[in-house]
Write a structure and sequence with these properties.
It is elongated and about 135 Å long. It has eleven helices and four strands, in the order ααααββααααββααα. The chain is of the alpha+beta class. The chain has one domain (about 1-110, about 150-190, about 240-320, about 360-480): Up-down Bundle (Outer membrane efflux proteins (OEP)), CATH 1.20.1600.10. Helices cover about 60% and strands about 10% of the residues.
Length: about 475
């Protein structure tokens, strides 16, 4: 883990009690940094997830193209990566932070400026040395340079802090990419499940409608009871209510997809699943828990934020020491433009400046305490992210195992309900059972098919949740997003 690697940058021996002059001479010779070493962290990393099967300790998370294999879904994901507004904002934020880093890092190097000026001034007779009005003119061309001697690493630590913030923003973009992939796929699979449930409700409603019409004629002839008619009306009303509910959920899924793609009015009909599709996802191994520290973008983001906070301590410590800057100018000046580059017109200046804080009502000390507190907060956040990541993976593994067992039981329930419905139909046709028993068998079969379809979606959502919890999917997509 990166935080356990020993730092190689020079560190000022501020903990050694040396005279101030000795420290200053040492700083001049070494160009030291006052940033402390990163704190050693030892998160409790399990050797294997409790719910993971043996033999999967070193499995890496596949790219999203390998995990989402349906061509229609891949096309939707590609469009979302190119057009999603939230992801575009994440990319723009990376570009913004990159510019801030370049601005901050430029302070490590001398600045060189070229300036040219010309002035004309009329002096009245009262101010003129010869007692008569005169016009004075001056023309100059100057090359100037300014540079702060980074004796105590303030500028370098400012650059390091900005660099780590850049890395953190890139990790945040990758985290946004993973979330987007999971949201688009989740809405797509939800649409497929709700479409299958809607189709099931429509078929059941059509069957119940035919049975109801037949029963109404039997009641009119006195061959069926009002109770049977009432039971069939209840079944029809239930299926019609289910139809309205699934149509609403389908529209919500479609709205979610259009929003994630950044196209509110897009026609996605060619990319949506059908009711006949048997959709599956590849089985995903959890892999080694230690891989989670390098695969989860949010953990990487927290790690870089911790490094940035650590570098900021070096900036705050350097404020206790003198700041030395050098300003130099060289050029030419003349009262006439024609004499600007003639002999004897050269000019130069060299201005060293030293600034030493003496008294500011404890502001410097408070800034240091603030920087140290920020690093403590960043460290706690980093450790919390690790713990939360392990919990996310464990929860998804638990859900996946639970839904898998539930699916097996529901398959058996659906098959047995269908067999019961067939037997009830045969007994009713033979006059051995009443129609109410047949209706009850049909109701049970309808309910079992609904539960089975919903359980399939829950299992798919658990697979998607595990894929997201493992931090997969961004490796092959980040470069493409940045290129947009």
């Amino acid at each position: 883990m990166l935080l356990n690697q020993k730092q190689t940058k020079n560190v000022c021996p501020t903990d050694i009690r040396l005279p101030a002059l000795s420290l200053l001479v040492l700083a001049l010779l070494t160009g030291c940094s006052l940033a402390p070493e990163l704190p050693q962290t030892s998160p409790a990393v399990p050797t294997q997830y409790a719910q993971a099967p043996l033999g999967t300790q070193h499995t890496a998370v596949p790219t999203w193209q390998a995990f989402f294999q349906d061509p229609r879904l891949q096309q939707l994901l590609t469009q979302a990566l190119a057009q999603n507004q939230d992801l575009r904002l994440a990319v723009l934020n990376v570009e913004r932070v990159r510019s801030l880093y370049q601005i901050t890092d430029s302070n490590r190097y001398p600045a060189l400026d070229l300036s040219a000026s010309q002035s004309r001034q009329r002096l009245p007779a009262d101010l003129s040395q010869n007692g008569s009005a005169s016009i004075q003119q001056q023309t100059s061309v100057t090359v100037g340079s300014s540079w702060e001697l980074d004796l105590f690493g303030k500028v370098r630590n400012q650059s390091e802090q900005a660099l780590q913030q850049l890395f953190a923003s890139e990790a945040a973009q990758r985290a946004a990419t993973v979330s987007l992939l999971a949201e688009v796929a989740g809405s797509w699979y939800s649409y497929a499940s709700n479409l299958q449930l809607l189709t099931l409700a429509q078929h059941s409603a059509a069957s119940y409608q035919q049975s109801l019409q037949l029963t109404e004629r039997k009641v009119a002839l006195g061959a069926a009871s009002e109770l049977t008619l009432s039971q069939q009306q209840s079944l029809l009303a239930t299926s019609q209510a289910d139809m309205a509910r699934y149509q609403r959920l389908l529209q919500r899924d479609l709205n979610a997809l259009q929003l994630l793609l950044g196209q509110p009015d897009a026609d996605l009909s060619s990319l949506l699943p059908t009711a006949q599709d048997q959709l599956t996802l590849p089985e995903l191994a959890a892999g080694s828990p230690s891989l989670l520290l390098t695969q989860r973008p949010d953990i990487q983001q927290a790690e870089h934020q911790l490094k940035a906070a650590n570098a900021n301590i070096g900036v705050a410590r350097a404020a206790f020491f003198p700041s030395i800057s050098l300003t130099a100018n060289a050029g030419t000046a003349s009262t006439e433009l024609s004499g600007l580059f003639s002999g004897g017109s050269g000019s130069w200046s060299f201005v060293p400046n030293i600034s030493l804080p003496i008294f500011n009502m404890g502001r410097t000390q408070a800034n240091l305490q603030l920087a140290e507190t920020d690093r403590t907060i960043a460290l706690e956040t980093y450790q919390q992210k690790i713990l939360q990541a392990f919990r996310d993976v464990s929860d998804q593994l638990t859900d996946k195992a639970g839904y898998q067992a539930q699916l097996s039981a529901l398959h058996t329930l659906e098959q047995s309900s269908f067999r019961s419905k067939q037997l009830s139909q045969a007994r009713f046709d033979a006059g051995a059972d009443s129609y109410l028993q047949l209706l009850d068998a049909e109701r049970s079969w309808y309910s079992a098919r609904q539960q089975l379809t919903s359980a399939r979606l829950s299992y798919q959502q658990a697979q998607l949740g595990l894929y997201k919890a493992l931090g997969g999917g961004w490796q092959s997509s980040t470069a493409a997003v940045v290129a947009q």
